[in-house]
């Protein structure tokens, strides 16, 4: 009886382990087909000029080495536990199915354009707000 119980527990543990492994594999697949790596790379490229503005005294060599150390694969791996936390395995499978559909593929093709345009609009919006605040503070005598 003890042997049967041990075998059942062992089998259940292996089944749960296989389920978790399969979910992880599906998350990685989702991240691949949803073009997360390319989007992360694009995000870094968009952020780099802003980072350079924050540290204008940093030599070009710093930024060359900085960029070389930005391993997109290891960055994307950090997403796996986040997706695991917020999405069930069925959710992940549904997202894979969506991104393999014509509409999902269109979303993937359009997302970089949306990101680029949104980033530009966000910059303009933030600059306008900043200028408005400066104007108000000048009017109020703070400058």
Strand and helix layout:
Layout: H1 2-33, H2 36-54, H3 60-69, H4 72-77, H5 80-86, H6 89-100, H7 102-139
Helix pairs in contact: 1-5, 1-6, 6-7
Describe the structure.
The protein is 87% helix and 0% strand. With 143 residues, it is an all-alpha fold.
Distance between the first and last residues' Cα: 84 Å
User: Biggest β-sheet: count, sense, barrel?
Assistant: none
Whole-number radius of gyration?
24 Å
Net shape: extended
The total count of strands amounts to 0
Q: H/E element string?
A: HHHHHHH
Helix content: over 70%
- Stretches where pLDDT falls below 50 for ≥5 residues? 4-10, 12-19
Q: What is the beta-strand fraction?
A: under 5%
What structural category do the secondary elements indicate? mainly alpha
Averaged pLDDT: 84
Total DSSP helices: 7
